[in-house]
Design goal:
Length: 476
C-alpha cells in the first residue's frame, strides 16, 4: 500500500485523497415494498416483515454527492492505474458498489472490465446500424455472473471474519452460469468453513456448464424440471435453514452486477446521451442491476442522462414482455429455449424491475420478443463476424435487429449489446444447428447459409488448393 500511496502523490491534488476508498457507508437491507430496514449482520433475501424483495441501501450515499461528477470521472479513471488487487475488479467502483466491505475481505479473481467491441461492417449492415458488444463471457467463469459473485463471496468472507462464522453453506439454483460462478468463487475460500452446493435442472444444462461446478469441487444436485423448480427448492432451504443463497434474489449479488453499468459509462467516456443498452431478461437480476447502476451514476451527476433499456425475451419465456405490452404480469410455463439462462417463466427480480420502470425508466424501458430461430442465428451470424457471443447474446442481437426494423432504436444512437457468457459454453447448440438436429419443440430448422462443417481431404496441397478455388467459385 505504501507504493500505491506514493503513486497517488503524482495524481491531481483534487483526487489524491479519494483514490484509495475511504467511504464506508451505512449499508442496510431495505424492503422494496414496506421500506423496513434491517442490519447486514445476517444473510437476508426477503423482508422479515412482509416477505417482499430486499435491496441494499447506503444511507450515507448522499455524502458521495459532495464530490462533483467530473471529479468522479478522474477518480475512477486514475484508480485503474493502481496495482491494488482489491480495486482491480468490480470494486474499482467500491464507494457505489458495496462500501462497507473493506479491501482486506475483497475476493478478486479477474472479473470485470470486459471489452466493448465494435461490430464490423457486414454485421452492422445486417442489423441495420453499427453497435457494440460488451463481452461478459471474458469473465473468469466465462459469464457475467462473476460480477455478482465477487460481491456476494466477498461479503461472505467479511461475515466470516467479523461474525466469527465457523460454517457457511453457499447454495444456488442455476441454468448453468450461476452455478459455475458460485462454485468458482466459493472454492477460493477456506473449505473447512465454506461448502458449496448447486441445484441444476436435470438434462437442461450444457455439458460445458455442468463441468464447471464439478471442476470447482461443488456438490451438484440434479432435479427433474426446469430452473423455476430448482429455484423453489433453494428458496425453501434459505427460509428454513442457515444458508447463504447465491441467486440474484440475494441483493448482495445485484450490487456486483451494477458494475456492468459503471463500466459501460467509463468505456464511453461517461457520454450516455442517446445510449441504448440491450439486455436479455432471464431471472431479471441483471436488467435490475443495469438500471440501478445507471441510476447511481445519474444521481451523482457522473452521467448526464439515463440510457434507454431494451430488454429482450424469447417467445418461449416472455412474462416480462407480456407485462410490458399488456400491463398484466403472470408467471408462465416455459418452452425449451437455446437461450437457456433466459428460460425462466417467473423471474425472481421482476418486482424490482417493475418498481424501477415505474419510478425512473417508464419511457426508457421497452421489451422485444424474438423467435428461437432468430436467437440461434443471431449468435451464429455474430460469431461468424468476429465475436464470441453466447445464445443469450444472440437473443440480444436478434432483439436489436427487430428493434431497429420497428424504429424503436434509431441509427444515430449508441448501442451496447450484452453478451452474458462465452460462445463455447453453448457449442452444443451450434452443433445441433449444423446437424439440423433440434427437437421439434425448439421450433428451429437449419438454413444452409449458417451451416459450417469440417471437410475431409487428402494431405495434398493441390487437392486442398483445388477445393478452395471451387468453393470460392461457388460462393461467387
Amino acid at each position: 500500500m505504501k507504493n500505491e500511496l506514493e503513486k497517488t502523490e503524482k495524481f491531481p491534488s483534487r483526487i489524491q485523497k479519494h483514490i484509495i476508498p475511504e467511504h464506508e457507508g451505512d449499508v442496510v437491507y431495505e424492503c422494496i415494498s414496506c421500506g423496513e430496514t434491517f442490519s447486514i449482520d445476517q444473510f437476508l433475501y426477503t423482508c422479515p416483515a412482509c416477505s417482499s424483495l430486499l435491496r441494499l441501501n447506503d444511507r450515507d450515499f448522499k455524502l458521495l454527492k459532495k464530490i462533483p461528477g467530473p471529479v468522479w470521472h478522474e477518480i475512477f479513471d486514475y484508480r485503474k492505474m493502481l496495482n491494488t488487487e482489491a480495486l482491480k475488479g468490480v470494486f474499482l467502483f467500491k464507494e457505489l458498489l458495496f462500501p462497507t466491505v473493506p479491501l482486506q475481505d475483497i475476493i478478486y479473481l479477474g472479473e470485470g472490465h470486459t471489452p466493448v467491441v465494435r461490430s464490423n461492417r457486414d454485421l452492422s449492415r445486417y442489423i441495420g446500424m453499427e453497435f457494440f458488444v460488451k463481452n461478459d463471457g471474458l469473465n473468469p467463469s466465462a459469464s457475467f455472473k462473476d460480477r455478482g459473485m465477487a460481491t456476494a463471496v466477498s461479503f461472505i468472507n467479511f461475515s466470516i471474519r467479523t461474525r466469527g462464522l465457523k460454517e457457511v453453506l453457499g447454495i444456488c439454483a442455476s441454468t448453468g452460469d450461476t452455478s459455475a460462478a458460485a462454485a468458482l468463487y466459493l472454492s477460493y475460500l477456506d473449505r473447512n468453513i465454506v461448502k458449496s452446493v448447486v441445484l441444476l435442472p436435470q438434462g437442461k444444462v450444457t455439458p460445458q456448464q455442468l463441468s464447471q461446478p464439478l471442476g470447482s469441487g461443488a456438490t451438484v444436485v440434479e432435479i427433474p424440471g426446469v430452473f423455476d423448480d430448482c429455484m423453489r427448492v433453494v428458496e425453501e432451504l434459505a427460509e428454513r435453514y442457515q444458508v447463504c443463497l447465491l441467486n440474484s434474489k440475494n441483493p448482495v449479488r445485484i450490487m456486483g452486477q451494477k458494475s456492468y453499468a459503471y463500466e459501460i459509462a467509463q468505456q464511453l467516456d461517461y457520454r450516455t446521451r442517446d445510449l441504448v443498452v440491450v439486455v436479455p431478461v432471464g431471472n431479471a437480476g441483471n436488467v435490475t442491476a443495469v438500471m440501478e447502476g445507471f441510476l447511481d451514476l445519474y444521481r451523482l451527476e457522473i452521467i448526464p442522462d439515463l440510457p434507454f433499456i431494451l430488454a429482450v425475451q424469447s417467445r418461449h419465456a416472455n412474462p416480462v414482455a407480456v407485462w410490458r405490452s399488456t400491463g398484466q404480469y403472470s408467471p408462465m410455463k416455459v418452452k425449451p429455449s437455446v437461450a437457456q439462462a433466459a428460460m425462466i417463466g417467473d423471474p425472481v427480480s421482476f418486482p424490482k424491475v417493475r418498481k424501477l420502470v415505474d419510478e425512473h425508466f417508464n419511457e426508457l424501458f421497452m421489451t422485444v420478443e424474438v423467435e428461437e430461430q432468430e436467437i440461434i442465428e443471431g449468435m451464429l451470424r455474430a460469431n461468424s463476424h468476429g465475436h464470441v457471443v453466447c445464445t443469450q447474446g444472440g437473443e440480444s442481437i436478434a432483439g436489436l435487429r427487430k428493434a431497429v426494423l420497428q424504429g424503436i432504436v434509431k441509427k444515430n444512437q449508441t448501442v451496447v449489446v450484452d453478451s452474458t457468457s462465452h460462445q463455447l459454453k453453448f457449442s452444443n447448440f451450434q452443433d445441433m444447428y449444423f446437424k439440423n438436429a433440434y427437437p421439434e419443440e425448439y421450433e428451429i430448422k437449419s438454413r444452409e447459409i449458417y451451416v459450417n462443417k469440417p471437410v475431409q481431404l487428402e494431405a495434398c496441397s493441390e487437392t486442398i488448393a483445388g477445393f478452395l478455388k471451387l468453393k470460392e467459385k461457388q460462393g461467387a
